[in-house]
Sequence to fold (432 residues):
Amino acid sequence: MIHTAQQLVSASKPEHTGHPDHNAVINGFGLVRQPGTVLFGVGRRDTIASAVASLGDEVLICSDARMVQTPEFEEIISDLKKRDVGVHVYSNVEPDLPRTNVEDLIEQVGQEQINVVLGLGGGSCLDMAKIATVMLTYGGDVQSYYGEFKVPGSTIPLVTVPTTAGTGAEVTCISVIYEPASDMKVGVASPHLEASATIVDPEFTLTCPPGLTAATGADALSHLIEAFTATAKNPGNGALENVLYVGKNTMADMHCREGIRLVATSLERIMANPNDVEARSATMRAALHAGYAINTTGTAGIHALQAPIGARTHTPHGVGVGVLLPYVMRYNLPVRTPEFAHMADLLGVFEAAQDDLANAHAAIERVEEILATLEIPSSLDDLGLKREDIPTVAANALRATRLTANNPRELSEESMIHILVRAHAGDRSWWS
Ligand SMILES: [Fe+2]
Fold:
């Protein structure tokens, strides 16, 4: 641990050339972007109605078919009504949030006098709630907000309440939307999408079935690793006006370290006992830390590759990123060995007698072990991706420049094909 930490500290010294060193955070640069209030804890869902009522008196709840049938949902509605809050419910949020789904919501509630939005559910419900605040405030065409800094100003307030432990969407200021016309996932990303309040209650996840727990857990793990190993962009003051994702930074690292430490054991404990509230709480907090981290670093190569694979195989986002994780980690190993060695310590497999490379290998193998316990498939073939689709997947992934720019090792079409071919065959017999 001391050996690795020393290396990381010395690596953070400023470069004399004035050029950014893509392996180092210069002068301890850090950035945090977050909701106005973040409340975390078992049983804290009882504060949802008061948080909403403090922000408005006509609420739109964005949720899905599973959530609205739960007793917890009934309780929230009843609490809101006791506080004289008018309630509108949209319960048709679809996975991966297609643009047409957003248009359907606006068609149904666009004329209502809504003055606060509550996102309650998994990542897509929270992403829907974020884009709903934009559409209900400014109207127009959803597509006109695609990109960064396209939202013209502040919106009606938003409260986010996640019911899965994975996406971190409760604290991020991006709404990820599937655009059928281009077969791409696009982001509406703006600091104006940050929630006014976030309430994170791990008890919501107690009813998550094992497959959903595994997929969302693998997603959180991938966020932590991508953020901890992202390119360090070290933007200057002028660039901060135009750059939402600044890459690896010290504040995000702080969240990554705590998040990785938490998932090191908690995910496997949940798989053994889904009612383990302490482990559910640890995983939920890890996902929250991961959300904080990617909200400034951005995600990277794994997420660039997953989107076109998910579109073809119709497999959940978390499963796709889980399959890709060991392969992209291997690809990034030559430029991120100290960080992976540091991760070995956080994952509980660090050996002081070993060098950084051996510890980095141990970290990657430990991640593979966790993914195996989650029953994440080991190859893209298992996901149903056809081998002949690999070139198209690589070409589409390359278009996600918002994500590929964050990857610490440069991603070309050729290198992506190289990763995909091995991931398709389940071939982990290589290091970098
Ligand atoms: Fe993700």
Residues 317-346 form the longest helix (30 residues).
